[in-house]
Amino acid sequence: MHRFEWLYVTVFVSPASGESFWYLSDGVSKALFEKTLALFAREAGAGRGRIIVLVLDNAGWHSEPNLAVPEGVRLVYLPPPDQVRGRRYTPELQPAETLWALVDEPIVNKHFETLAELDATVAERCVALNKDRDLVKGPAGFHWWPQRAYPI
């Protein structure tokens, strides 16, 4: 029995440019991720002229078996945990993980009567972040992250 309603934020971000694509949903699944990935590929112009490399964590709904990956999108996964050697997941290597504090700013210490009210506030924030590449680039633009590459 479900006792809670959920709101999920998915963001695809270019650490080098601050370009970002934000999506809100009420759940997570491989089927929903495929649809989100396809929408992202269309909106970002992925294809023969623009190859996009996405770094993903190892969430079950991101996994490749039977995942339809759009043309122009290449998936690279962060290393999984190694239980034998005691290593853990490394979300600090995922540029999008640094953006959650920015998303949370308008909702910290606030009460929302409905999920729709929360959704509207988070959506408004995501739209603002989408327009402010410098703000997004700051936390996501790790100094060691590769710069954008352009085909010859």
Descriptive overview:
With 152 residues, the protein is of the alpha+beta class. The chain has a single domain, classed as Nucleotidyltransferase, domain 5. 30% of the residues lie in helices and 14% in strands. It is built from four helices and four strands. It has helices at residues 30-44, 100-104, 115-131, 133-140; strands at residues 8-13, 20-25, 52-56, 73-77. The protein has a two-stranded antiparallel sheet with strand order 1-2. Strands 3-4 form a two-stranded parallel sheet. Strand 1 (8-13) and strand 2 form a beta hairpin. 13% of the residues are buried. The mean pLDDT is 84.
Quick summary of this structure?
The protein is built from 4 helices and 4 strands.
Quaternary state of the chains? single chain
How many domains is the backbone divided into?
1
Which topology does CATH recognise? Nucleotidyltransferase, domain 5
What structural class do helix, strand and pairing data support?
alpha+beta
- The CATH class turns out to be Alpha Beta
* Total of DSSP H or I helical runs spanning 4+ residues: 4
Q: Share of helix among residues?
A: 25-40%
Spans of at least 5 consecutive residues with low confidence? none
